[in-house]
Amino acid sequence: MDYFRRTDRLDAILFGGLFLVFAAFLGFFGVRGAILFLRGSREAPADPTAFTIGILSAVALCYVTVRLWRRGSASRPLLPGPLLLLGSLAALGGMAWMMVLNYELYGSVLGDLRTVSAAGGIGVLGLVQWWRRVRKNGSSGKGNAA
């Protein structure tokens, strides 16, 4: 499949740079929200959920950037299992959060169906990929033991 083919080194460097720009953007607003919150502000960026998501996303994107730039083996997955599981669960949590917001704003949980379905789809696909890795690693261990 074309989506899982090996990428060129230049592509890895460019995507790493793009992820680093996103990390800087999210990190800036996450840290800014945390500072505002500590100073007593109750504006939207100072909401603990919002700035925590920004900071954690920035850290995760920096991690992915480092893995892209220092990639030693093409057989090693870009996202390790725990990070893939955490990201998938976060996407599903974001989907639930968007559904609650849609209900509050539009009176229906599916008020903005594209955003809700995109977050849910990403979460489900991530969980499927994580589960495939877990099953593959579990079955390869059993075969080698015999």
Structure notes:
This protein has helices at residues 9-38, 48-69, 81-106, 113-145. The model has no long low-confidence stretch (mean pLDDT 81). The longest helix is centred in the C-terminal third of the chain and has 33 residues, at 113-145. The chain has 146 residues and is an all-alpha fold. The chain folds into 2 domains: 1-78, no CATH class; 79-146. Helices cover 76% and strands 0% of the residues.
Structure summarized in a few sentences:
The chain folds into two domains: 1-78, no CATH class; 79-146. By secondary structure, it is mainly alpha-helical.
Features:
4 helices, 146 residues, 0% strand, mainly alpha
Strand/helix succession: HHHH
Rg from alpha-carbon coordinates: 19 Å
| Unreliably modeled segments | none
The CA-CA distance between the termini, in Å, is 32 Å
Shape: globular
In terms of DSSP E residues, the strand content is under 5%
Total strands: the figure is 0
Q: What is the topology?
A:
Blueprint: H1 9-38, H2 48-69, H3 81-106, H4 113-145
